[in-house]
């Protein structure tokens, strides 16, 4: 399934989660409906640290239809790290990073290889 868009409410929630966990990171998994990212799945046991966040994949219910991930960069640099790209490779095809100060434009989506990709925001 090609992911082409994200719901406005879902994006707002991700930015809010970034604000709420600052100065720590959060990480979550994303699921979609007809190519549109509609849901944020908080996984039990997700660890937020100042330098990294990790998701225990054995805790991910497979029926969630995970298409990618989202996490925050409290340092405001919206670019995947090498560790992020290793994480992207095992967690779907569409990945969102939100960064400090978590305003409406403080995010970017990426393919699993770390290439930026445009995502439409729909109401
Ligand atoms: Zn990162």
What descriptors fit this protein?
binds zinc ion; 123 residues; alpha/beta; single chain; 18% helix; Cytidine Deaminase, domain 2; eight-stranded mixed sheet; two-stranded antiparallel sheet
Provide a descriptive summary of the structure in words.
The protein has 123 residues and is α/β, with parallel strands linked by helices. It has a single domain, classed as Cytidine Deaminase, domain 2. Helix content is 18%, strand content 35%. The protein has an eight-stranded mixed beta sheet. β6, α2 and β7 form a beta-alpha-beta unit. The structure holds zinc ion. The site of zinc ion has 6 residues, from β6.
Bound compounds, each kind once, are: zinc ion
CATH class: Alpha Beta
Calculate the terminal CA-CA distance, rounded to whole Å: 20 Å
CATH topology-level name:
Cytidine Deaminase, domain 2
| CATH H-level superfamily title | Cytidine Deaminase, domain 2
State the gist of this model.
The chain is of the alpha/beta class.
Detail the topology: elements first, then pairings.
Elements: E1 5-7, H1 8-21, E2 27-33, E3 36-41, E4 47-48, E5 53-54, E6 66-73, H2 82-89, E7 94-99, E8 107-110, E9 116-117, E10 120-122
Parallel strand pairs: 1-3, 1-10, 6-7
Antiparallel strand pairs: 2-3, 2-6, 4-5, 7-8, 8-9
Zinc ion binds at residues 71, 73, 80-81, 84, 97.
